[in-house]
Amino acid sequence: MILIDKHGADAAAEAGRRLQWLLDEGDEAGVAAWTEIVFAIGEFQRGPLPGEATN
What is the pTM of this model? Predict the structure, then answer.
């Protein structure tokens, strides 16, 4: 949520840059964590699907 608050619509791109940097550095644990973060940002930003329950 911090990335979304700070970068808005560009949050996924910012997370992708961080993920790429970790890939370049060979940081497997970091890549695993940031892969999940990129996915979570996408989920937060996509909004509900038709018929999908919201909390």
Answer: 0.80
Contact between 11 and 45 (Cβ < 8 Å): yes
What confidence score (pLDDT) does residue 25 get? 97
What the block records as the tokens of 2 is: 């911090």
Reading the block at residue 31, the tokens are 């890549």
- Of 36, 46, 51, nearest to 9 by C-alpha is 46
Q: Which residues have CB under 8 Å from 16's CB, separation 6+?
A: 38
End-to-end CA distance of the chain: 17
